[in-house]
Amino acid sequence: MSADIYQKCMLLLEQRTVICEGIQKGFKRHQLYLELFSDIVTDTSIPKNRYDLVNTEVTKSIENHPHLQIEFEKKKSGFHPYIVLREKLRNISILVLPLATKKDMFDSASTYRKNFSVSNIPRLIEEGLPEDSPDIDIQYQRAMHPLGTDSYPFGLIVAYDPFDGSIREGALLPDHTDWIFLEDTTSMVLSNSLDNVTPINVYEYSDDIKIPFKETAHQTDEDIPLKLKSDPSV
């Protein structure tokens, strides 16, 4: 049952395809950058340039497909700029972030990611997850969110590997000790380019969109590792 509930807060197939195409175009632009400036001995701008180009191409891809009901907002946490994609009809916020596949979590917990995931458990409960579900072992305060799903978003993360471009889709526990779920969605996209897709309201057909889904709150070693290296100083 948990898998079906998680899917309610995951990207729809066409939405995922549009974001993935943006990530791929950002990688291509970054590769051109590397070729143009291949003579630089110590290029410290490489990860920042890739991050900026991916964000740029993702926002362009979103703008080119307005029927997906996704908007984007440029934000900043300290000196760190980032973008938030907001899927309006289901009230889902999406962060697009680099995370190497070999790593099971981000290097450190950040304020903006914590704020971004604080409503995830109450939102899943609103979607039908039992409050005593064995999949979720965490304390939360339901009273913090008394107004229902319209008042707080679900925080989804689209994480791309900065080296090979593979993509995972997941959601963090509010305290960042683990993932609620984390799925490899690299191949879960439309097989053809979206250039010839007729704009539709994808929500009319969302019940027909099903993706393979593994239970991920407590996966085996053969699945994606989910443990967070906690940093109590943060």
List keywords for this structure.
single chain, 234 residues, alpha+beta, six-stranded mixed β-sheet, 6 strands, 27% helix, 18% strand, disordered C terminus
Give a description of the structure:
- By secondary structure, this protein is of the alpha+beta class.
- It has 5 helices and 6 strands, in the order αααβββααβββ.
- It has a 6-stranded mixed β-sheet with strand order 1-2-3-4-5-6, with helices on both faces.
- A hairpin with a 6-residue loop joins strand 5 (167-172) and strand 6.
- The two termini are 34 Å apart.
- Mean pLDDT is 79; it is low at 196-234.
* Helical proportion, percent range: 25-40%
Strand portion: 15-25%
* Count of beta strands: 6
Distance between the first and last residues' Cα? 34 Å
The helix/strand class is: alpha+beta
The residue ranges in which pLDDT falls below 50 over 5 or more consecutive positions are: 196-234
Strand order of the largest sheet: 1-2-3-4-5-6
Give the averaged pLDDT, no decimals.
79
Count of runs of 4 or more consecutive helical residues: 5
Q: Tell me about the largest β-sheet.
A: 6 strands, mixed
Write down the secondary-structure element order.
Answer: HHHEEEHHEEE
What radius of gyration results from the CA coordinates? Answer: 18 Å
Give the overall silhouette. globular
